[in-house]
């Protein structure tokens, strides 16, 4: 995604993009995964021929719990609550892209509706990642169950956010 946005900004093909292009014109990648996911991303960024410089990546490792104590990110709610609104806040310029597995997006959008970590004026675009066919059906069913359960517990809004989510 970072390379594609950079290519579009520069009017280049994806194959023409170089590390310096991304450093100068690439979007910021805000990544807030679990410790394992964060370590995997860092390993990729450390590859000698990698095109995404660390200068364009903002990795969030911790979330503050209700008592104000910091702890490592463990789940989707932690990822939503750890979004750096206070650091990026109203300086966000452009669009926030949410990249996740397709069955997981409905829950993410309902968390966004409940906790509103992204300013209302900032457009949100979703980019679903296909699930492995071997487990995609079971994963989709589990996500439906989680949405229902978390709605009942009050962790989600009934309608996804933003209401005008679309392609344009």
Keywords:
single chain; 168 residues; alpha/beta; two-stranded parallel ribbon; 7 helices
Polypeptide structure, described:
The protein has helices at 2-10, 19-25, 35-45, 76-81, 85-88, 105-115, 136-153, and strands at residues 29-31, 57-59, 62-64, 70-72, 96-101, 124-129. It has 168 residues and is an alpha/beta fold. The protein has a two-stranded parallel ribbon. Strand 3 (62-64) and strand 4 form a beta hairpin. It is globular.
Alpha carbon gap, first and last residue: 17 Å
Helix/strand-derived category reads: alpha/beta
Shape: globular
Q: Summarize the main sheet.
A: 2 strands, parallel
In percent, how helical is the residue content? 25-40%
Uncertain runs are none
Total number of β-strand segments? 6
How would you spell out the order of helices and strands? Answer: HHEHEEEHHEHEH
How many helices in DSSP terms? 7
Radius of gyration: 17 Å
Count of discrete domains: 1
Give me the side-by-side strand order of the main sheet.
1-2
Write down the overall mean pLDDT: 87
Strand content: 5-15%
């Amino acid at each position: 995604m970072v390379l594609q946005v950079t290519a579009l900004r520069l009017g280049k093909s994806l194959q023409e993009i170089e590390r310096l292009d991304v450093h100068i014109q690439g979007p910021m990648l805000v990544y807030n995964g679990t410790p394992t996911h964060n370590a995997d991303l860092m390993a990729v960024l450390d590859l000698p021929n990698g095109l995404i410089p660390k200068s364009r990546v903002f990795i969030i490792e911790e979330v503050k719990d209700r008592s104000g104590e910091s702890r490592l990110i463990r789940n989707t709610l932690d990822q939503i609550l750890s979004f750096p609104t206070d650091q990026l806040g109203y300086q966000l310029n452009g669009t926030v892209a949410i990249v996740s597995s397709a069955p997981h997006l409905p829950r993410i959008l309902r968390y966004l509706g409940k906790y509103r970590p992204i300013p209302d004026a900032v457009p949100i675009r979703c980019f679903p990642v296909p699930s492995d066919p071997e487990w995609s059906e079971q994963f989709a069913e589990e996500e439906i169950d989680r949405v229902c359960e978390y709605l009942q517990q009050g962790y989600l809004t009934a309608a996804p956010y933003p209401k005008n989510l679309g392609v344009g």
